[in-house]
Structure formats: structure tokens, C-alpha cells
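LAB NOTEBOOK - FOLDING QUEUE
OPERATOR: T.R.
BATCH SIZE: 2
PURPOSE: Compare the predicted C-alpha cell outputs for two unrelated chains run back to back under identical settings.
PRIORITY: normal
REVIEWER: second-year student, initials M.K.

ITEM 1
FIELD SEQUENCE / FIELD STRUCTURE:
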Amino acid sequence: MTMTAPASTAPALPERVALRFTSPLLGLPGATAYDLVVVPDGVGLFSLESGGTRLFLVDPVHYVDDYRPRLTAEQRAAIGIDTDADALLLVVVAPDVDGPTANLLAPIVIAGDGRASQVLLDDQEMPVRAPLRPSVSG
């Protein structure tokens, strides 16, 4: 599976992609196998190991202006990519009283072969609960 596309859009994905995380997602210990399923207006993440676990993800380019996190060499190496452009980057969405929010501090990074990682952007000032609104640039 190839995951390359213009910088302003997410790569075209099959309806379902098996992902193997390098370590469990934050708050979900033990599970490292998930299916990434394309759904309208976002991407849903379904756990293979725990069928009841369901997270919603979105491509931040459509909802967050000027979100351009920088991955470290170690974060890229963990999923076998050379540059940030070699991966699909998605953010976890959470419900909130005032509307959905996105965790911009810990995005999901996916390589073309299905390896994935939730990275923590230690040195970057990013919110954990950024309001989601249609992006001006996306």
C-alpha cells in the first residue's frame, strides 16, 4: 500500500487497513492491532484485539489551520519512515459539551506498510483538546 499524496490532502486509503502499533495507544494498554476504517468526514479506528474499542480520527488538515507537527528522527525510525511526508498523520477526536475536540499533542502517525505509532510532541506547544472547526486552508 502506498501512502503518498499532495501535502494538503490525506492519501487515498482502502476502506479498511490493518495497523500494527509500535506500542499501545495512550490509555489503552495491551492493544497494538487495529483496523483503520474510512468513514464519512473522518476516519474511524477499530480495535482488532478489543472489538468494543472505537476511536474516531480525522485528518487535521481539514479542521486545524497551521498544524504542522515535527517528528523526531526516533519517532520516524520507529515506524520505518525517512521524512514526515512519508506518513499519514491523524488526530484522535473526543466529544465535548461545546463540540468535538482533537488531541494535537499526541497524533497518530501511520507508515505505508501499516506500522503506526501515537507520538507525543514533547517540544511543541500543542493542545490536547483543540476545538474542531472547518479549516480555512483545508
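ITEM 2
FIELD SEQUENCE / FIELD STRUCTURE:
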Amino acid sequence: MNFIYAKVEVDVSGGKIIDVRILEHRQERGKAAEAVANEIVDEQRIDVDTVSGATNSSIVIKKAVEVALKGNA
């Protein structure tokens, strides 16, 4: 069994998410989920839609962004 893993870096300025960079993403078929990073920046929220066919990777990336944002608080 392989585990999905994501490490991200999030830039915040003036209370806005200005960039989400995926530094590492271990996945099976979830490469498409990396589009979630752009959605988070565009929507300015973590609760964006997951990518169909890459739901688990999408969830992992969103959680990694959440953890990174808590570190920026």
C-alpha cells in the first residue's frame, strides 16, 4: 500500500494567499490534483472542489495547505 503525501509552501501577504507551491507530492494517480493549489489561490480558501479521479490526493494537498497556513499564523 502506498501512502499519498504532500509537502507545500504557502506565501501569504496582507492576509491573502498569494502562492501555493507543491514541493513534494507522492501519489498514485493523483498528479491532476496539483491543480487544487491554483484553485486555493484563486478562491482564497482551502475548501475548494477536489479533482475528479484524484480525490484523495486533492484532500491531502488541501490538508497540507491548511497545516502550512497554521504555521504562518
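REVIEWER COMMENT (ITEM 2): The beta strands are 5-13, 16-26.
FOLLOW-UP: none requested
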